[in-house]
């Protein structure tokens, strides 16, 4: 079939009717699609070529529109949840009929008014639907280089790999598991540093500064943590890495560097089982 749902195509007017015009690929009169009369230019005539988007209307009929939706096949877009229904959420994508985001294609619970990052796919009934599984449609040709600062949206969390991020809501990036510190969660907007541009163009990010820049920030964080514990932490730099990570969001090595910095400045002292603020 020469008509592609979810895509913008240049089609020829092959027939005029009272309720619109029928469009088809040049040379293919068998596969036609209707463009409703209200969207047909007054001067349009048989033989003219028009650029239209193809989707299914509320009666599941393939139909053309001259409007360009906010999302087409192969793209990623941030769309607002217009309403919730029994089978999923409905997104405003700039057409009369809202776009369905089925429950099975959601990441976490969405609610009316939320903005969600989605791509298009065709379901088993050959209808266009949205999915929050956007990895395959993110771009890998970003303008960014190593050490650039970027802003992105976390669109997936993986215990194995880390946090998958859409930089500028369109470029593919990953914060590796070993670079995850503090609370990072789905949907969060993160400011990060590019630590590597992979051979395929995808970005590897870190939400921490270089070690020599991070020590001061970590030391300040520990002092604030000490204040919240009334001046004494119930663990030391010799405690298990899991304990340190859970309490501070730092790796054991980073914690030890920051504590060493505070010791030199005589702001803390270390006991057998605790660290006390001076």
Low-confidence stretches at least 5 residues in length (pLDDT < 50)? none
CATH class of the largest domain: Mainly Beta
Kindly report the average pLDDT value. 88
For CATH, the homologous superfamily of the largest domain is named as Nucleic acid-binding proteins
User: Order of strands across the widest beta sheet?
Assistant: 3-2-1-4-5
Assign the structural class, choosing from mainly alpha, mainly beta, alpha/beta, alpha+beta, or little secondary structure: mainly beta
Number of domains: 4
Total number of beta strands? 18
How many helix segments? 3
CATH topology term of the largest domain: OB fold (Dihydrolipoamide Acetyltransferase, E2P)
What does this structure look like?
By secondary structure, this protein is mainly beta. The chain has 4 domains: 8-65, Nucleic acid-binding proteins (OB fold (Dihydrolipoamide Acetyltransferase, E2P), Beta Barrel); 77-135, Beta Barrel (OB fold (Dihydrolipoamide Acetyltransferase, E2P)); 138-206, OB fold (Dihydrolipoamide Acetyltransferase, E2P) (Beta Barrel), CATH 2.40.50; 211-277, Winged helix-like DNA-binding domain superfamily/Winged helix DNA-binding domain (Arc Repressor Mutant, subunit A, Orthogonal Bundle). It is 14% helix and 37% strand. The protein has 3 helices and 18 strands. The strands form 4 sheets. A 5-stranded antiparallel sheet has the order 3-2-1-4-5, with no helix packed on it. The mean pLDDT is 88.
Structure keywords:
278 residues, mainly beta, OB fold (Dihydrolipoamide Acetyltransferase, E2P), 4 domains, 5-stranded antiparallel β-sheet, 18 strands, elongated
């Amino acid at each position: 079939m020469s008509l592609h749902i979810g895509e913008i195509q240049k089609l020829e007017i092959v027939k005029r009717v009272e309720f619109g015009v029928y469009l088809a690929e040049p040379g293919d009169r068998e596969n036609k699609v209707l463009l409703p009369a209200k969207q047909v230019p007054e001067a349009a005539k048989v033989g003219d070529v028009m650029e239209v988007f193809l989707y299914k209307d509320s009666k599941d009929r393939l139909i053309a529109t001259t409007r360009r939706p906010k999302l087409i096949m192969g793209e990623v877009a941030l769309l607002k949840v217009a309403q919730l229904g029994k089978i999923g959420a409905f997104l405003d994508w700039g057409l009369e009929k809202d776009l369905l985001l089925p429950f099975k294609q959601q990441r976490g619970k969405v609610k009316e008014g939320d903005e969600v990052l989605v791509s298009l796919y065709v379901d088993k009934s050959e209808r266009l639907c949205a999915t929050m599984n956007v990895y395959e449609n993110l771009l890998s040709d970003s303008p960014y280089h190593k050490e650039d600062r970027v802003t992105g949206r976390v669109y997936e969390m993986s215990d194995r790999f880390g946090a998958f991020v859409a930089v500028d809501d369109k470029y593919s990036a990953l914060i590796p598991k070993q670079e995850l510190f503090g609370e990072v969660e789905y949907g969060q907007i993160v400011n990060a540093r590019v630590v590597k541009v992979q051979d395929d163009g995808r970005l590897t990010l870190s939400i921490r500064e270089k070690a020599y820049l991070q020590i001061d920030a970590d030391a300040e964080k520990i002092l604030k943590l000490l204040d919240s514990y009334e001046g004494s932490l119930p663990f030391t730099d010799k405690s298990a890495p899991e304990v340190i990570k859970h309490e501070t969001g730092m790796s054991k090595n980073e914690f030890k560097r920051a504590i060493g910095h505070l010791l030199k400045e005589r702001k803390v002292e270390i006991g057998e089982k605790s660290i006390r603020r001076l």
